[in-house]
Amino acid sequence: MALQQNRFGRLGFASMAIRHITHLCSFDSTRPFPDYSPKKPTIKDSQLVYTIATTIKLRRPEPLRRVLKFLEHQLRPDHIIWVFMKIRNDHRLVFYFFEWAKNRINASLEAHCIVIHILVSSNGSAHARQVIKDFVSNPEPDFVSHDQFLDGLIYTYKEWGSNILVFDLLFQVYAEIGLVEEARKVFERLLSYGVVLSVDSCNCLLVQLVRNERIELAIQLFKAMPEDGVCWNVASHNVMIHAMCKVGRMSEAHDILLGMEAKGVTPDVISYSTLIDGYCRIGELQKALDLIREMEAKGLNPNSFTYSSVIVVLCNRSKVTEAEKLMREMVDSGVVPDNVVYTTLIDGFCKIGSLKDAYRLADDMKIKGLVLDNVAYTVLICGLCRKGKVREAEELFKEMIDRGLNPDEITYTALIDGYCKEHKMKDAFSLHNQMVRQGLTPNIVTYTALSDGLCKGGEVDAANELLHEMVGKGLVLNIYTYNTLINGLCKVGILEQAKKLMEDMEEARIYPDTVTYTTIMDAYCKEGNMDKAHMLLREMLEKGMQPTVVTFNVLMNGFLRAGKTEDGEKLLSWMIEKSIMPNVITYNSLLKQYCMAKDMQASSRILKEMRAKGLVPDGNTYNILIKGHCKARNLKEASYLHKEMTELGYRLNVSSYNALIMMLCKKSRLAEARELLDEMRNNGVVPDRDVYNKFIDLSYSEGNMEGTLEFCDEVIEKCLVGESCGKQMGKK
């Protein structure tokens, strides 16, 4: 008769007939496990079996290869089973004897099945699992199929153990080694005997399917198996939430969480944390935060994984202060941050340039007994190099080595890039050589940093040689490498070679992107060649590339540098028509041009338009406007803007301080001028000589000789002996 059909039948897997079963049942009933009794040994065989069993029991501590060596030549496959009958109550002895015997003769399928039953029934599941795994992974030539193996286990079940865990182990092993079809056949065959495998075993199958990207099959089984008696638990639902998150199907993942309680399954911290991590990975930060509040309301305490997922997103969005606030909340709730959380925050602060906070967190780690690892050191070294503090990065690199940590390619490359940006090419190549001696292979990023340093130092030929060396080593040049080289060539004014390199890119089937075009356009604009810059813009548009706000800012600066303010205004209108939102830099360029021309009416119009677009003026905006109003003698407007920028946390730059102080002096508002001068000096900003001369004259005219001499000493120190004043004047 046909065996019972179930949901698996619809998925294409039919039930298999069981050998050795004489008692069949009806369609709706379940089968009994078959009766079994092994064949009887002869008198001669019984004597040999007795000798083997007695010997291994009495000489148990000794290796079997020694105590049974004189009997090896008499051993046959049937003897193994008969010996089992004598020692079946000692599962360890059964296992060791079986391992010894199968290495000398071909143990039968029946012997394999019996030893598995004995081991499971005697709490020897670990050894039983190993026997199953060895058999299904490397079956003997005589064992034809997995079906026969399952038949054997069913056939010997009643006599040798009657522990259903045997089939759970078989199912789990099949799932673990990827034999999903065979695992499903085990499940289906056991149903015909009225046996439903444990939910933990079924979870193993779900885990393997998800791990192997077979998500759709996992979904089908998750929906079908409850109809066959499987009661999914919280771990099952967590696996499926993870599966849905893995493929970005967040609404389905959320539905699984919402449906758990309706099935009588209570979501745990892992359920919520998995879903939170999924939302974080696709950038849905608010949904992740809402879930944290929801789980807290249900009495579930978020763990380190829960918080770290959100902290990573906040740091990636440069919201590092909020991320640290969340970490403090994490500590207050009794969850101890680990290295990953701290390192993520340190990296976040480094990326926004707040090294003080990064070091504060590193010190906090040490206080809490956490050790800075390779990743933490590398993050700090990258941050220091990004801020131009290469000497400090070098000291940290040495400290890392002194502590027994081994820098990797990323660490070396970060410091090499730092040296290159500081034009310390000798140190960069020396570190490159050290890296190679340590057995590390420089990657495309390493060589790109070296090439950039060479180009910016004017060593274009050396950069080209390095380019050929990269290709010779089998490294595939990417768009970043080419863009770096083109940028370097543009910096030293070799535009034709930069343009030629862009053509070479296309021949290598690495097509120039917006950055490539914008870099060369910027170089043309700086040398006043707006026609060629326009030509590149047209070429970009013809190729279907969308210019970015940076592209337009480059063109804007080119027009304004050439005194073509009207063209700059037209470009701004064109940007808006193309739905490219101007940024603060765009408007600041126009403001600067109008302020230089003392056209403060146009400046006010631009500022009003900027605010209407939802853009907030930055420190540069205020400094530009204050200098403009000072030049136009609008002290009232300049003073108002100064007050406003101070309230917003911005500071005047040196030229704005000088302009505002001189304007206050001209309006005879000397007390305010002195107050601003003191503020300027307290902030470490050096006034220019005109300001010093003005206050020397004022102090002298007031008869304040001490003040006059103090200003004279300061101007000599700051503007004649030191270089500070010259540098500040150069920045104007």
From TrEMBL:
* Listed GO MF terms: mRNA binding
Signal peptide feature range = none
| KW Heme (keyword) present | no
**UniProt keyword annotations, A-Z:** Repeat
Please indicate if the UniProt record lists Iron as a keyword: no
Q: Which GO terms describe its cellular component?
A: endoplasmic reticulum; Golgi apparatus
* PPR repeat start-end pairs: 163-197, 233-267, 268-302, 303-337, 338-372, 373-407, 408-442, 443-477, 478-512, 513-547, 548-582, 583-617, 618-652, 653-687
Q: Which Gene3D superfamilies does the entry link to?
A: Tetratricopeptide repeat domain
- Pfam families, per this entry? PPR (PF01535), PPR_1 (PF12854), PPR_2 (PF13041)
Task: Tell me which SUPFAM superfamilies the record gives.
Answer: TPR-like
Matching entries from InterPro entries are given as: PPR_rpt, TPR-like_helical_dom_sf
Q: Which family does it belong to?
A: Belongs to the PPR family. P subfamily.
- The name under which this protein is listed is Pentacotripeptide-repeat region of PRORP domain-containing protein
| The species this protein was found in | Amborella trichopoda
